[in-house]
Amino acid sequence: MLDYGFTEYQTAIRDLAHEIAEKEIRPIAAEYDREAKFPWPVVKVLGETDLFRVFVDDQFGGMTEGTPIMNMVIVTEELSKACAGIALSFAGTALGAIPIILSGNEEQKRRWLPDVAAGKKLAAFALTEPQAGSDAAAVRTTALRDGDHYVLNGAKQWITNGGEAELYSVIALTNPAKGPRGASCIVVEKGTPGFSFGKKEDKLGIRASATRELVFEDCRVPVENCLGREGTGFITAMKTFDVSRPGVGAQAVGIAQGAFDLALDYACTRRQFDAPIGSFQGLRFMMADMAMKIEAARALVYAASRHIDRQPKERPTLYSAMSKCFASDVAMEVTVDAVQIFGGYGYMHDYPVEKFMRDAKITQIYEGTNQIQREEISKVLIAGYHSRRAAATAARAA
Fold this sequence. Notes:
By secondary structure, the protein is of the alpha+beta class. The protein contains 11 helices and 10 strands.
């Protein structure tokens, strides 16, 4: 891998995450995928080794050294090289905690973040609903004020860490008449009366990650659990995706690298026609393209992450969407090619490479499909073009 200028701390957490991936995750990845088991033993190790602290503000129990998104990306990539589903226990918690980090007041951060940083409580982010997927503004779950409580009614669908997390950052309508402008972000704690979980989804990939429906039936939550002002929930959601999408990109890079490593080893050891199959130009060119795409995706994800950390007041929508979209497309291409290099063996559950292909697909879908990412990218580009044209016209007129 290229030298990306990691700090001493970032090198340390990368090496630690790599060690955990190889010693704790890789030996159980196939079993946890096959049985769709949530990786609590790995979560315990991540907590004991302080890896949940890398994305939490220092004053609330974290250890970021000022680069929370880059740190989160580094750890997510390394864990995903062994199993993307197991890695989601970490990455999904970061996603669920980001709304608190971005929009919570100091009391809320002191109340919830130290336990997240210590690995004592996992978190989850709840936006998607049966009728609100790509159209995130179409949420219908309500949180109507009743004295000093909100009463939540509705359901959220396909929630990562669902049923396992203790903290849920939920987007709900506190003023339904205003549509998206009436949405708020409210933290709901597991065990709150009226809050329950639907069935655990039986998925194509990331099967070691729990994905469940959240059900709210007259669920009473204190008003003090609202992050930011009422009506700013949709803004919080979009800002959350702006900083979390490089994490999906990092997961995709890890998946692609994990599959490539297996394919390279197989190409160098599998013999056909009295020679390693890696000696044939068709496969050599394929592997060269795979390696180039992975490194390009990694560079974009790292650059976007650093940009977010260095420019916290700037909306990074363009680069965040690019990093997620490009890296996840690369992951899908690389894992399909890795299966091809394995040939018939690659199609069998007995070999690990097919799992990487199954895991890669979701990175093109969640936190905004790649079609939505391209919409976001093009909107920023076109708006920038018109802004520059207007500024140039004004300058000429002056």
